[in-house]
Design a protein that fits this description.
Elements lengths: L1 H8 L8 H6 L6 H6 L2 H23 L1 H7 L4 H37 L9 H29 L3 H25 L1 H6 L4 H13 L16 H25 L4
Helix pairs in contact: 4-7, 4-8, 4-10, 6-7, 7-8, 7-10, 7-11, 10-11
């Protein structure tokens, strides 16, 4: 409703033009609006979820009790990863549904045209959102397993997502060529680039963390690589170390 009120009342000199503000909330921007929070703020929350899933097992002592009953460590890890993926898939799907509902309500209230994205674009959006969410969640699990706790992994993860990557992208990269090249390997940068690619060529990218720094194909492969590496390192730590 804020967008509708701004459309009718806000003067053109206050931020974006009212027409542009309204257009950014309509159903044709569904993929962009749903996924734009994942590279930065949503990623921080999902990393926290992964750290809680893995780190809580050490704090509560449930991992040691579970392994004493017979299942292999990699079997336990597979179960944790499956549970995390189910939760993340449900979260991404629910985000799409809620964003679609709000977009439709805004369009109906403003008597605007309702133009939904195609099925292919929605499927690509869901898959890309799940890939980003799974990468952040897997990083949280790696930190929780490596540090055998929850507070420190969450703190380190938030510092990385909200501070270090932002400093590299917004401060160091414009000044130093080495950082400009290195930012293309950061998970947050690739997550933001993937969202930018999924949003389309004509999208107005204004959300922090969303920018087309690398192309969408490279971003997807880099995130998939991070997901594999984070999962493999978590499995290695779980199988090689004592759980106490």
């Amino acid at each position: 409703m804020y967008a509708i009120r701004s459309y009718y009342a806000a003067p053109p000199t206050r931020g974006s033009p009212p027409e542009a503000l309204l257009a950014s909330t309509l159903p044709d921007r569904l993929v962009e609006n749903t996924l734009s929070g994942l590279p930065l703020f949503g990623g921080a929350l999902l990393l926290t979820l992964g750290a809680l899933l893995a780190g809580s097992e050490y704090g509560w002592g449930t991992l040691k009790t579970l392994l004493a009953q017979g299942p292999r460590r990699l079997t336990v890890l597979a179960g944790q990863l499956l549970a995390l993926l189910v939760v993340l898939a449900a979260t991404v799907l629910l985000s799409f549904l809620l964003t679609a509902l709000v977009s439709w309500a805004i369009a109906a209230g403003a008597s605007a045209t309702v133009d939904w994205p195609g099925a292919g674009q929605l499927l690509r959006g869901f898959g890309g959102g799940l890939l980003i969410a799974a990468t952040w969640g897997a990083l949280g699990m790696l930190l929780g397993t490596a540090l055998r706790s929850t507070a420190l992994p969450i703190g380190l993860g938030l510092v990385w997502v909200l501070a270090i990557e932002n400093l590299v992208v917004n401060v160091a990269a414009p000044l130093l060529g080495a950082f400009d090249a290195a930012q293309a390997a950061l998970p947050g940068v690739n997550a933001g680039s993937l969202v930018a690619a999924l949003a389309g060529d004509h999208a107005e990218l204004r959300t922090p963390g969303v920018a087309a720094i690398v192309d969408g194909g490279q971003a997807a492969w880099v995130l998939a690589g991070f997901l594999v590496v984070f999962t493999a390192l978590t499995g290695l730590l779980l199988t090689r170390r004592d759980v106490t």
